[in-house]
Amino acid sequence: MxxxxxxxxxxxxxxVLWLFVIAAVGVIRTDIFGPRRKRARSTRQxxxxxxxxxxxxxxxxxxxxxxxxxxxxTVPHMLLVTAGALAGTSLGLTDEQITIGRANDATLxxxxxxxxxxxxxxxxxxxxxxxxxxxxxxxTYLDRQKVTEPTPVPVGVPIRIGKTVLELRR
Amino acid sequence: xxxxxxxxxxxPMPRGRRSTELLMLVFALAxxxxxxxxxxxxxxxxxPSGPLVYIAIFGVLMLAAHVAVxxxxxxxxxLLLPLAALLNGLGIVMIYRLQESGRNGNPGNQVAGLAASxxxxxxLWTGVGVLALxxxxxxxxxxxxxxxxxxxxxxxxxxxxxxxxxxxxxxSTVNGAKVWIIFGGLSIEPGEFARLALAVFFAGYLVAKxxxxxxxxxxxxxxxxxxxxxxGPVLLAWVASLLILVFETDIGTSALFFGLFxxxxxxxxxRVSWLLIGIALFLFGTFITANLFSHVMERFTVWLHPxxxxxxxxxxxxxxxxxxxxxxxxxxxxxxxxxxxxFTPLVQSDFIFxxxxxxxxxxxxxxxxxxxxxxxxxxxxxAIAVNDPFAKLLVGGLSFVLALQVFVIVGxxxxxxxxxxxxxxxxxxxxxxxxxxxxxIGLLVRVSDSARKPAPQPxxxxxxxQVVRAG
Lengths: 170, 471
Known about the structure:
Chain A is 28% helix and 25% strand. In chain A, the strands form two sheets. A six-stranded antiparallel beta sheet of chain A has the order 2-1-11-10-7-8, with no helix packed on it. The N and C termini of chain A lie far apart (58 Å). Chain A contains three helices and eleven strands, in the order H-H-H-E-E-E-E-E-E-E-E-E-E-E. By secondary structure, chain B is mostly helical. Chain B is built from 16 helices and four strands. In chain B, strands 1-2 form a two-stranded antiparallel sheet. In chain B, strands 3-4 form a two-stranded antiparallel ribbon. In chain B, strand 3 (218-220) and strand 4 (223-225) form a beta hairpin. In chain B, helix 2 (18-44) packs parallel to helix 4 and helix 5 runs parallel beside helix 16 (431-452). The longest helix of chain B is centred in the C-terminal third of the chain and has 34 residues, at 352-385. Chain B is globular and about 70 Å long. Classes of the chains: A alpha+beta, B mainly alpha.
């Protein structure tokens, strides 16, 4: 074997090894964003009102239960209690609404003297989470604004219920 | 009709992606075959003739593993198996190359302590490893099955760790590390399996106790300090890891064991204070033992002054040979079969990474490190995606300890941190490490399958089947 063949073999093997790494990363990429062709079709089917930028970001995640294609960067995945007696508690977000209050059948049962029995609810709609006050005595506040009608909740904005503060987290 | 969006639009079936896995597996096998051919050509200048059967057997084993995953974990991550297969295959190729060095008319010296049948043995252990993977998939249908055996496995793990310490030296010590069980021709390193058992124990324990560990305590200087009484288990883990260090003279196992516990504690509680406490305890423990025990101090001397005085021919001979090998390899390596890795003692086990560094160069070992990184990333990804908190903790901890193990040994041989003898997962010669690594992959495959499995169809969809056809 001459030196040229040797070098070709040596570099060739490294190239193949790196090709494997790149292929593996490609598999991860498809796993996250889905194959390109399918993505375009399903996006058209499912969302029609979203702006083009949001559509480009949209991804039908194969394993997720979500019906709406949404960007993983803006979609909240859990509800976190940041202050109050339950601070540190988190709830995973599904398609179900989350009821909050002192009632035993609430999704998040508060032991907060300033909360009502059925205080508020959080529910998903059109890829967003909305908060609605259920006629509580002391009111529900989104950031500093009193919630009077179902209001979209951005990620990371505090919802105040009595002494408890909740936040949507990614 | 409110149910319309659900009814008229079929929910896209999540793909199991088993064909992607098969494709990547075949790719991995092709890379291994290429490596084998290149090594053979590099050694003797001839294409391999006889022992191509090694690669054939390896391929059959990996395809068997693929069939098992297809059957028992259809939604598993498609990359776990191919990545592990590639690492295992490259390890076998390197062991074959080291075994042939100085034998059968090939150039170079024989590697001390490497039998002429080392490749066969490694292949045999690969078979056992794949069998272990299949058994994990068959027996453990869900990770939470293991939760029942939290304390049993915890006790088993501690016993496994302790056995070498109490065995007589002739049955437990190889190259100064008292971490083996040796009977007859069979030597087992129980620490490799103890790590898995203890990971299950930590996961089960922390799932039960996380609230007390996370929420109770005071806030000092912006850090949430835990209560003194919650420190008990942490101190226990610390003392146990120090005992391993002292009685088994094995820094690597001790560091991995303690690192695993601290990482899982952090994952469970999300409190930075545990990390700080853990690192402080570890540094304190290392400082004490380094001053009390000469063999620990020696590691630091070798790390800080490998080239000074008589060290390169004395206590630092092995790491210096490893470093020179990697320097010799440079950016692109000498090519498989063209280097001289046989100068480094124990190049087949602890120092196999330097052999890759010499023959594949920086470019090659970076690819290897990336493959390890992807494996860890897939594991952590499964941990994030899975719902069951026990599985989450278990897989998070196992992925972390895999990363830590690679860091400890690669950092050690490259002189970044003091050298401690742990095996390089999948690459090193040695059955225990290989089988334990395959069990780990089995657990990752199992949990990633649970994480990616589609949710059961909602009940209302069953209305479709109740159509009554009259006439």
